[in-house]
Amino acid sequence: MRASDAERERIAELLREAVAEGRLDMDEFDQRLETAYKARTHGELEPLVQDLPAPGSAVAPVGSSAPASLGGSAANWPARIGGPATSTGGFALWGGFNRKGRWTVARKFTAFAMWGGGEIDLREAHFEDRETVIRCFTIMGGIHVTAPPELNVEVRGIGIMGGFGEGSNEDGEISPDSPRVRITGFALMGGVGVERKRTKAERRRLKEAREAELEARRRRELEGPDDGDGTGGGRKKL
What we know:
Elements: H1 5-21, H2 26-38, H3 42-45, E1 87-93, E2 96-99, E3 104-114, E4 117-121, E5 126-127, E6 131-139, E7 142-147, E8 152-160, E9 163-166, E10 180-188, E11 191-196, H4 200-223
Helix pairs in contact: 1-2, 1-4, 2-4
């Protein structure tokens, strides 16, 4: 079966996601991406992603009309839901606390900060349950929550002589496989801030993937369209 432009682009998206997750190095990504854009049939596309699971699920067949589930740092959500919680709360009084890196959030997590601050980073976290409630209370203090752009987060809180809400966020599509996190509570003469942001390592990988893709596109434009003789075309004559 002949491959369409949409199918080639979907395979390219899977490859970009794989390099962002660290499954492919840049050389492998560059080679596979170039092959994907030159592919003419499904048989040429399928080997490029056979060893790469789609984030959160198995790789969909090349001919499938269903879009692949993409997730960035939120990849493989089912594997990140379940298991015993490693932390049920955080407390700061004239000091601070932080929860970040690889940790498991309790289904009900309570954070309190008075004359201090707390940091809750969900970008690499696992979750005890698909439904998670994070309750944040501050009195003349602050709590900062960082979530990946693909995580389903709902913010409901009250600020009294303070603030409670979301700040500037990176763009990202909510993953249907992600847990649902509700952030509630109140801030009295303090603040609770929620930010959607990728990790530095992931932003770097995505940037490198985009640069490699642009370079592959430039090479294809220089080579010119396939002339149908199996040679892949050549440089356009001036």
